[in-house]
Design goal:
With 947 residues, the chain is of the alpha+beta class. Helix content is 42%, strand content 24%.
Length: 947
């Protein structure tokens, strides 16, 4: 009080001089002072409004996180909780929220609700859904899965927050994104400011509309988000820049003082001057009151500072302030937590408080302290790592706020040590783990139902059997019935129906649908339980997972079916071999007659036609050999071959195997290293893959591409291939067959190598299994690359061999021996008249006398009659009554030195066991030509004397 009295006395003594000075001052200068005071008041209101909006954003973000980590929200996105919108989103959800949006991981909307005029949930407008979808996409791309935004839409300030949806345990990738919005109109912002003398309006960020808005738009920025200035001579206006997540301006919020300050100040000055002149004696009273107000204000400010200092010093949390990346205040809690005294920490960078990240990255805590003023995460607590003075790291929760003063921008940091909380959480998890181990000891799913139908208990093993926790069955009594397979509902209801009031016993088996969509078989038994007095206690039920037993039974059935199909395939092989045998006999007649006709003196045009017939017959012979390889009637003979050259020779056959609407594009480069393979089996691999590719394209036009290249397989190269277990690294030749069909569905890919599995109506399901067997026998591997809508590529890897491939020889045309002639008697035994006729003519042309027989029985009769005169026997392997092998044994019993030439459409390896390494037995591949027959006869007779 003494200070106020002394100030009043000084003011009173100087009244006269002050009056003269005031008379000389411009009233406009004094009014400018009033405007500056009011501008400061408006600026403080703008800062308060910015703080309130940050707080509202933080509250909205907390609400979104609570919903996002809720298992029910994750369950709805996974399709296991369809009642989620009806049960968990009610009118109360929209008490503090104007929009509720749920998106999947592709930002596709699943729930789009907004507050209706009556306050109840309603379908959101398209523009609201689009804005929420953009924010959801930003959250999915964010490393934290969080995104917020402030925007101006339809003259309303809209706060939006998004968070990635995960289960409560936080494990696994995001299931989707939850977005919530809250909007404020002018009336809402008025209520937030709690002022009756301010007028609020929202404007676009470019400042269109008035000169003061244009000036504000030019002066506002992320570094200066608030501004106050005289709007004209009578009003003061404050401006707040609204920015989005990326810092781009979304709008300008204007707060205008509604009092006419200039007019009011001018009238006050006039009255003041008149009063001052008239009553100079009492001028000191208002001056003293003014001084008293100033003194009170100063005292109140100092008292508030002392109170704030007392609060911060008594807090257990670390509270400190940062300006220009330097610590400017440090409370007692910070000293206890970090170990730094105020004198050694003030003026230093806050980076000292956070441990460095690997790779030199900026620590998360330091990022929070240095975040720009427009960061929507300011004020939102986040967990970081901090470090004490002694180097000990500890988990902490930090919250950062910001304010502006005459000295610049300050950051207030509140940091809490959460070590104890983390330890408590770890102890709780350990306790839960022990309980889970004990509760999951039994593998059977036990249920206890009350007499009124309520489920009283469900053992934890139900989650292993059904994929759903026990709590789900307790909360929803009808859940068990809903997961029963629809085809087994009648069996389940007949045994466990609610209408049944008697004692239920016995065992039934039914299927349920696991949460992951798989089918499980349960063996179910239940029994009504009574106490000692006969009172009904309910029903005890036990469910055992018998899926493995059922699967074994199904596998046994499948194997039996596989055996039947294998028998059918063997029958098909026999049929194919018979057709090939008859066709070979026909080709003998065709090629033999053409060969002998070409030796005659014929016109050039006739010779050209006959040469065409011989070429076609040779290709037909190759076709027969490939048919035998496909039917499995030939032996695998591995030898160094040029794989590309082998397939180039089979190109006509491959083109003939597919529709004319499909283009076969062959890219078989020359110069590839040789591979150890059977040419016939290699052709079968290519044929099966090409036919599969063509069938995948279907009735449409398309292209099947066949290519080859050399690859160098390093360690791990065959990961994901089939098989991939024991293949050696090194050089391989890769055969690629691609199509532009629809691709293989993901659920079909694991089954494509299963025998007899097919997706085609008329398919046998043997194409890829046969290819897999051949590739395995060649010590190779297969890789499948497919994508829906982008076709399929099958890659076969065959190991490179060190021995070079021999040059391709025409087995049907050995070296000509036209000059060679023989003599004596030859016996031809063959059941096909055409073959006997051609062989007789060819052998006769070489100088022999020929006798023939139509089968083994007749041939033995002829051999007995002229055994001493016969020099050579040409014997067919496949004949009725007595085949070639039995006939050979009988001939050897009669005479051991006679040379025998075995003629067959099968390969030499397939018939090698017939001769049993007899040096006097030779092989003649059907269909044969005269040069090949000549060479075989010469070799047989040359070896006869040695025998």
């Amino acid at each position: 009080m003494d200070l106020r009295r002394k100030a009043s006395l000084v003011v009173l003594l100087l009244t006269l001089s002050l009056m003269l000075a005031l008379m000389g001052l411009s009233d406009r200068a004094l009014l400018r002072g009033f405007l500056d005071v009011e501008a400061g008041n408006v600026r403080d209101r703008m800062v308060s409004l910015s703080t309130v909006l940050h707080r509202e954003t933080a509250m909205l973000g907390a609400s979104v996180r609570d919903y996002a980590i809720w298992d029910e929200t994750s369950g709805y996105l996974e399709g296991t909780n369809s009642a989620y919108p009806k049960v968990h989103i009610s009118d109360s959800t929209f008490d503090q929220t104007d929009g509720f949006f749920l998106f999947d991981t592709n930002a596709a909307p699943r729930i789009t609700l907004a507050r209706s005029a009556q306050g109840a949930p309603a379908e959101a407008a398209p523009e609201e859904v689009a804005a929420a979808a953009l924010l959801a996409g930003e959250a999915l791309e964010s490393s934290h899965g969080v995104a917020t935004r402030r925007s101006v839409r339809n003259d309303r300030l809209v706060l939006s927050a998004a968070c990635a949806v995960r289960p409560t345990d936080g494990e696994g990738p995001p299931r989707g994104v939850l977005v919530q919005t809250r909007s404020f109109g002018v009336a809402d912002l008025d209520s937030l400011l709690l002022s009756v003398d301010l007028q609020i309006s929202m404007h676009p960020p470019d400042g269109r509309g008035s000169a003061d808005l244009a000036e504000a738009a030019a002066r506002l920025s992320n570094r200066t988000p608030t501004l106050s200035m005289p709007r004209d001579d009578n009003t003061i206006a404050g401006y707040l820049l609204l920015t989005g997540e990326t810092g781009e301006a979304e709008g300008i919020l204007r707060v205008k003082a509604t009092r006419a300050l200039v007019s009011h100040g001018r009238r006050s000055l006039q009255v003041f001057l008149v009063t001052l002149v008239a009553t100079c004696a009492i001028f000191g009273i208002p001056a003293a009151w003014l001084v008293d107000r100033l003194v009170r204000t100063g005292l109140a400010q100092r008292e508030g500072e002392e109170r704030f200092r007392a609060v911060t010093e008594s807090a257990r949390d670390a509270i400190f302030a940062v300006r220009e990346d330097r610590i400017v205040s440090w409370n007692r809690g910070a000293r206890r937590m970090f170990g730094h005294e105020g004198g050694e920490i003030l003026g230093r960078s806050p980076a000292l408080l956070f441990p460095p990240e690997p790779g030199g990255a900026v620590p998360e805590g330091l990022n929070a302290v240095r975040a720009p003023a427009t960061d929507p995460m300011l004020g939102v607590p986040r967990e970081v790592r901090a470090v004490r003075k002694n180097g000990q790291e500890f988990p902490a929760e930090v919250s950062v706020g910001t304010w502006n003063s005459a000295e610049g921008e300050f950051r207030s940091v509140i940091l809490r040590d959460i070590t104890d909380r983390r330890n408590d959480e770890a102890a709780l998890r350990a306790s839960e783990t022990k309980y889970r181990i004990i509760s999951e000891h039994t593998s059977d799913w036990e249920l206890w139902t009350a007499p009124d139908g309520r489920l009283l208990y469900s053992s934890p093993s139900c989650e292993q059997i059904t994929g759903r926790p026990a709590r789900a069955f307790l909360d929803d009594p009808d859940l068990l019935r809903r997961i029963v397979h629809p085809e087994d509902l009648a069996v389940y209801d007949g045994h466990c129906g609610r209408a049944d009031t008697g004692d239920r016993g016995g065992e039934i088996e039914f299927r349920i649908v696991h949460r992951d969509g798989n089918i499980r078989w349960l063996a179910h038994t239940c029994l009504r339980v009574y106490d000692d007095e006969g009172a009904n206690l309910g029903i005890r039920a036990s469910n055992r997972d018998v899926s493995a037993r059922r699967k074994a039974e199904e596998e046994r059935t499948r194997l039996e079916e596989q055996v039947r199909n294998t028998q059918k395939l063997e029958s098909l092989g026999v049929l194919t071999g018979g057709i090939a045998h008859d066709f070979n006999n026909l080709l003998v007649g065709i090629l033999g007659n053409v060969e002998m006709a070409l030796d005659a003196d014929l016109p050039p045009e006739v010779r050209e036609s006959l040469a065409g017939v011989r070429s076609a017959g040779t290709r037909a012979a190759d076709l027969v050999r490939q048919m035998l390889a496909y039917s499995g009637r030939t032996t695998v003979a591995l030898r160094p071959i040029d794989a590309a050259e082998t397939l180039r020779a089979s190109a006509p056959l491959m083109r003939a195997a597919i529709s004319h609407r499909i283009v076969l594009d062959l890219d078989l480069p020359r110069g590839l290293p040789p591979v150890q393979a059977d040419p016939a089996q290699l052709r079968q691999i290519a044929m099966n893959l090409i036919v599969n590719a063509a069938e995948a394209i279907g009735e449409k036009t398309g292209t099947v591409r066949v290519g080859m290249e050399a690859v160098d397989a390093g360690p791990g190269f065959f990961a994901g291939a089939c098989p991939s277990g024991d293949l050696d690294p090194g050089p391989y030749v890769a055969l690629q067959v691609s199509d532009d069909g629809p691709g293989i569905p993901d659920d079909v890919v694991p089954k494509i190598f299963d025998p007899f599995f097919t997706t085609k109506f008329t398919g046998r399901g043997l194409g890829l299994p046969v290819v897999q067997g051949i590739v395995r026998a060649h010590r190779g591997a297969i890789r499948i690359r497919t994508a829906s809508g982008h076709g399929t590529t099958v890659i076969v890897y065959l190991p490179v061999c060190a021995v070079a491939a021999p040059p391709r020889q025409d087995t049907a045309a050995p070296a000509e021996a036209a000059a060679w002639k023989g003599s004596g008697l030859a016996l031809v035994i063959d059941d096909e008249p055409l073959v006997r006729d051609v062989a007789t003519r060819m052998i006769s042309r070489l100088g022999f006398d020929v006798i023939t027989a139509s089968d083994g029985v007749e041939g033995l009769r002829a051999f007995r009659e002229r055994a001493d005169a016969i020099r050579v026997v040409v014997l067919d392997l496949t004949m009725p009554r007595m085949d070639g092998e039995a006939t050979l044994k009988e001939i050897r019993a009669l005479r051991t030195d006679v040379p025998v030439i075995l003629a067959s459409g099968f390969s030499e390896l397939d018939v090698a066991q017939v001769g049993q390494n007899d040096p006097r037995v030779f092989f003649l591949q059907k269909p044969f030509r005269l040069p090949l027959l000549t060479e075989r006869l010469r070799r047989a007779l040359d070896a006869a004397p040695a025998a």
